[in-house]
Write a structure and sequence with these properties.
heterodimer; A: alpha/beta; 9-stranded mixed sheet; 10 helices; 22% strand; B: alpha/beta; 11 helices; 8 strands; 33% helix; elongated
Chain lengths: 280, 342
């Protein structure tokens, strides 16, 4: 059986890096999900993984126009039920344009209609984040004073619209359940311990009140929120960590923040957001 | 434009005669294009021209349009779409009336900004079916098409640049009791209110009959101006009179919204006169001072009073006549029981 899982998010939200890291975890087979067969075409994930192996992040997908799918058959237990997961990697720019024009290429629309789960990415402290308008800017725009630089669509509005698209288009699960949506807050290693303990949901509430409100009001999607760190630290600005990372290797690094009995904790299994979405 | 002339539609190249009856040799349009040193057709070799036309021959005239699948838009809702929403849940329709420039749009923009910064006291955001329209309003991008006041409510349209009046949808959660409230806020041109007062044109405002609350937005600067305030108060009375006729016995909550609270605090005297004018028309209203934007953010923060406005609009249901009134029992009037006893 084949199910498609959609990865969405604005530009620079961490989708591609997650796919690269995910592939390593699936291949290694120590997480909840593992790759049941070796996929035929792993060009794309290998490329991304190579960047990670070298202690860097993959460049933003905006620079590659071609659509790159990663297709893998996964299973939760050896010999247990399998699911073919197609993870299309789409540039964040495409999603942003989809929101602005309220339309999308027909093959992506088909992809959305066939999928019964999605992962929505939001990155902490991304320079691509657009703050909502404030009163001063808005007033100048209303009075047509000019000279205001239009920053574009605020990130939270884009995320709300993406959630609306998913709500409209995702198919129900085969077991009759609601389509699942994993909200993945990436670069979760950047937040301070206090924020970590409050969890990514509280973070969304503070940074993106519209998104948090929308998620709380969703009736047509099953939502779970995860914090994610693909490599467990900051490879760009923290040379010590980068050194340690290169020496220890990718496989032991990276974690997902999940909610357990004693509050939020780090789990080394980065397949969790997708495992829950697939729901084997 | 022909090859040797910068004027659009020039006929000299085809017929040798200028349609504007000018002399081709001295015409300003013609002279400039040659003066710049543009290559005239005569100078080019035949081979150049042939290869050019050879490239174009058989090529498609227009680019093939890119096909795209559309999602339902999140612009303003038309009456029909609003009906659809109202069919599935209770929606508080709010009528917003007021003269042009009184601050109706500013109130909506400020409400949206408060919600998107989680600063609307006592409320939090849950959903909006018209986020794109709210964004447009906050960016001042919703001009009635170059000053031409639209004649009717929005009809559902896919045109991206079409700004027609319509409803903004906003679902809020009241923090005190978790109640979800769906608001439908119309974004209407002030000219419609003027037309209602001046010529009783009310067909476009029929939706007011299902409104749970009506905001009448008054410009606080005008009310503070000794010379202008009387006229505005009189017009308010006339507007309420017109409303009474439209509403025909229905009594939605009336809220008088006085804008520019940051510059002028409403005088008690003026408030009394407003109330007196309303009472003359048999109406009751609350008066709220708001400052959608603020010139003195230290004293009056931007968005001042908007939360009160929402509280008032959905807070308590309007007073209705008792459904089954109980009357005092009067022994003498129980005619049936006392039949033939007296």
């Amino acid at each position: 059986m084949s199910r498609s899982i959609i990865l969405l998010g604005g530009p620079d939200s961490g989708k591609t890096n997650y796919v690269g890291r995910l592939w390593r975890a699936l291949d290694l087979g120590e997480g909840v999900l593992h790759a049941a067969e070796q996929p035929e075409n792993i060009n794309f994930v290998l490329e991304v993984a190579d960047h990670l192996f070298q202690g860097g992040f993959a460049p933003r997908s905006e620079y590659s126009d071609a659509r790159r799918d990663f297709e893998v058959v996964v299973a939760a237990t050896k010999g247990g039920p399998k699911a073919r997961v197609v993870v299309p990697d789409i540039s964040g720019e495409l999603w942003r344009n989809a929101v602005i024009d309220s339309e999308i290429a027909p093959d992506w629309m088909n992809e959305l209609r066939q999928a019964d789960a999605a992962l929505l990415f939001v990155r902490v402290d991304s320079d691509q984040n657009v703050r909502p308008l404030d009163w001063v800017t808005s007033r100048r725009m209303l009075e047509k004073l000019g000279g205001e630089e239009d920053q574009g669509l605020p990130t939270q509005v884009m995320l709300c619209e993406l959630i609306r698209f998913l709500e409209i288009s995702l198919a129900d699960r085969e077991d009759g359940g609601l389509p699942r949506l994993s909200i993945v807050v990436t670069a979760w290693d950047l937040v301070d311990p206090g924020t970590f303990d409050q969890g990514p949901a509280a973070y969304l509430e503070r940074e993106y009140p519209l998104v948090a409100g929308r998620l709380a009001d969703l009736a047509d999607l099953d939502v779970r929120i995860f914090g994610l760190s693909v490599v467990g630290g900051d490879l760009k600005h923290d040379p010590d960590y980068r050194q340690a990372f290169l020496e220890a290797g990718l496989d032991s690094k990276g974690w997902v923040a999940v909610f357990g009995e004693n509050g939020w904790r780090k789990s080394p299994d980065v397949t969790l957001p997708i495992a829950w979405a697939v729901g084997l | 434009m022909s090859g040797s002339c910068s004027f659009d539609g020039c006929t000299v190249d085809d017929t040798g005669i200028c349609a504007l009856s000018r002399d081709p040799k001295s015409c300003a349009n013609r002279v400039t294009s040659e003066g710049v040193g543009a290559e005239s057709i005569d100078d080019r070799s035949d081979a150049d021209i042939e290869s050019e036309s050879g490239d174009l021959l058989g090529a498609p005239v227009l680019d093939q349009p890119v096909r795209a699948s559309a999602f339902p838009s999140s612009r303003t809702l038309g009456l029909q779409e609003l009906n659809g929403v109202m069919g599935s849940r209770y929606v508080d329709v709010i009528g917003i009336l007021g003269d042009p420039e009184s601050g109706k749009t500013a109130c909506l923009a400020s409400l949206y900004l408060l919600v998107s910064h989680a600063k609307l006291t006592g409320w939090s955001f849950a959903e909006s079916k018209s986020l794109a329209a709210f964004e447009e309003i906050a960016r001042g991008a919703r001009d009635w098409n170059e000053g031409n006041v639209p004649e009717q409510m929005t009809v559902h349209t896919e045109l991206a640049d079409d700004h027609r009046p319509g409803f903004l949808h906003l679902r809020l959660v009241r923090l005190s009791d978790g109640r979800r409230v769906d608001l439908a806020l119309p974004d209407l041109p002030g000219e419609w209110t003027q037309a209602l007062v001046n010529t009783a044109r009310s067909d476009r405002l029929d939706f007011l009959k299902s409104a749970g609350a009506i905001w009448i937005v008054l410009d606080g600067r005008t009310l503070a101006d000794l010379e202008k305030r009387q006229g505005l108060i009189a017009r308010l009375g006339l507007l309420v009179g017109r409303l009474n006729k439209i509403l025909d016995g229905r009594a939605p909550r009336l809220v008088i919204v006085v804008t520019h609270r940051d510059l002028h605090v409403l005088d008690v005297n003026v408030a009394d006169r407003l109330q007196a004018e309303l009472a003359r028309r048999g109406a009751q209203a609350e008066i709220v001072g708001v400052a959608p934007f603020s010139d003195h953010p230290g004293d009056v923060p931007a968005g001042f009073g908007i939360a009160d406005l929402i509280d008032l609009s959905v807070g308590k249901p309007a007073a209705r006549p008792t459904f089954w009134p109980s009357t005092e029992l009067d022994e003498r009037k129980r005619a049936y029981l006392t039949y033939r006893r007296s």
